[in-house]
Write a structure and sequence with these properties.
Largest sheet of chain B: none
Number of helices of chain B: 4
Order of helices and strands of chain A: EEHHHEEEHEHEEH
Distance between the termini of chain A: 32 Å
Structural class of chain B: mainly alpha
Number of helices of chain A: 6
Strand order of the largest sheet of chain A: 1-2-3-4-5-6-8-7
Oligomer: heterodimer
Helix content of chain B: 40-55%
CATH class of chain A: Alpha Beta
Number of strands of chain B: 0
Shape of chain B: globular
Radius of gyration of chain B: 12 Å
Order of helices and strands of chain B: HHHH
CATH topology of chain B: Non-ribosomal Peptide Synthetase Peptidyl Carrier Protein, Chain A
Number of domains of chain B: 1
CATH architecture of chain B: Orthogonal Bundle
Largest interface: A-B, 22 and 17 residues
Strand content of chain A: 25-35%
Chain lengths: 197, 88
């Protein structure tokens, strides 16, 4: 976790709305409290963080989706008409005019219901519109099929493969990683760009 | 043979594979009836993240081998599956 003394970017850290969800900017303290139980949720620590067991506080502080309001932004995913957070989606700027996505859905009732697709589509439009992001990239384990599905459905191009990049923490088997990218001009020509982008 | 952009031209073998690919999708998604040969993630409502996992397992069973990472990253339509089946 890195804290920034600069004032947060209020344009980017604004509440957003999709068809089914409110995306509420989350703060450092909220992530620190870990209300979604990510540290001990096997689906999260196993599939997102590729860890064998629950995360220690130190590991959480190092790897959790802490926002800084400058280059890292985290949004709580709240179904409309409720106050329940079902997951968090982060956007992190890294590299030249480049950003990356990460999402975790801790409410199992929402798995397989395209929540990540709907939320990511909104956030990409938001960051393409209000920030100088020219490209979104991602690096996904080839075993993370639901996440690969989301990227492909959004139109991301498979731009490369990192073979035997890491090992499965339980089986020790090597895992390949897929690289995906979406350039702003391609997004604007695609079906998911919002009008006026 | 590949085109200048890297995509293979549609051959008779691929046409046959498209029919097989459509059948695999119908089986994986439990669709009664025909799946259009030009169907993809965007046009098939049943193609969600959970069914995608089932589909990958069905393709592996059809091929008789695990999918490679590059192949997993390219599956998004009947045509993309047909190319895999035509060149296993």
């Amino acid at each position: 976790m890195k804290l920034s003394l600069k004032p947060p970017n209020r344009t980017l850290m604004t509440e957003l709305e999709t068809e089914r969800f409110i995306l509420r900017p989350a703060g450092v303290l909220e992530i620190l409290r870990d209300p979604g139980g990510w540290r001990t949720n096997r689906n999260i620590y196993r599939n997102i963080y590729l860890l064998k067991g629950p995360m220690s506080l130190a590991a959480w502080l190092k790897r959790g989706p802490f926002p800084d309001g400058q280059t890292r932004f985290t949004f709580a995913i709240v179904p409309k008409g409720t106050s329940t957070v079902i997951g968090y989606h982060s956007v992190r700027q890294a590299g030249w005019k480049t950003a990356g996505n990460a999402v975790g859905i801790h409410d199992s009732a929402w798995l397989g219901k395209d929540a990540a697709f709907e939320v990511r589509k909104k956030l990409m439009n938001h960051f393409f519109r209000h920030d100088d992001v020219q490209r979104f990239t991602s690096r996904i384990e080839s075993t993370n099929h639901p996440s690969i599905f989301v990227y492909r459905k959004l139109g991301f191009r498979h731009s490369g493969t990192l073979h035997r990049e890491r090992a499965d923490p339980e089986t020790g088997k090597p895992i390949d990683y897929l690289l995906f990218e979406m350039l702003k001009e391609d997004w604007m020509c695609g079906p998911h760009a919002e009008p006026g982008l | 043979m590949r085109t200048s952009r890297g995509a293979r031209p549609v051959t008779p073998e691929i046409m046959t594979s498209q029919t097989r690919a459509a059948a695999i999708i119908a089986r994986a998604f439990n669709i009664q009836g025909d799946v259009p040969l030009d169907a993809d993630m965007a046009t098939l409502p049943a193609w969600d993240s959970m069914n995608h996992v089932t589909l990958l397992m069905e393709i592996e069973a059809e091929l008789g081998r695990p999918l490679r990472a590059e192949e997993i990253g390219g599956i998004d339509s009947v045509r993309s599956i047909a190319r895999l089946l035509a060149d296993p």
